[in-house]
Amino acid sequence: QVQLVESGGGLVQAGGSLRLSCAASGRTFDSYLMSWFRQAPGKEREFIALISWNGFSTRYADSVKGRFTISRDNAKNTVYLQMNSLKPEDTAVYYCAADPSHVERYDYWGQGTQVTVSS
User: How does pLDDT run across 35-70, given as a tens digit for each residue?
Assistant: First the structure.
């Protein structure tokens, strides 16, 4: 069983930056594919970024490419999402998710952290 706890959300002005963290319990975190998703009010959950178990491979949604960076520190059981040049349309609840099978099927989800970008 893995528990994921996100933190780092908040209110920021457009053009600003935030760094989200996702702390994971469990001894096998370093074998999991990890991703970030977000969900805005009235919208479906949206994939944001993905990072392989060793951090060597990443993928981003077009909407955040060049502005967001996903990274991980397996020694700290933590995955990060650095968000720069934030826009009001980035406002959403952000979730991290863990995929033990590396097939982009996420068995574990955090509770989410709110990010609000004011114009």
Answer: 999 999 999 999 999 999 999 999 999 999 999 999
Partners of 73 in the beta sheet?
Answer: 78
Q: Cα–Cα distance between 22 and 42 in angstroms, integer? A: 24
Alpha carbon 58 to its chain centroid, in Å, reads 12
One DSSP character per residue, 66-88 reads: TTEEEEEEGGGTEEEEEE-S--G
CB 81 within 8 A of CB 7: no
- Report the distance separating Cα 87 and Cα 85, nearest Å: 7
Residue 33: Cβ within 10 Å count: 19
CA distance 78 to 84: 19
CA-based angle 72:26:59, to the nearest 5?
30
Is the pLDDT score of 27 beyond 90? no
Query: Quick one: tokens of 73?
Result: 């520190």
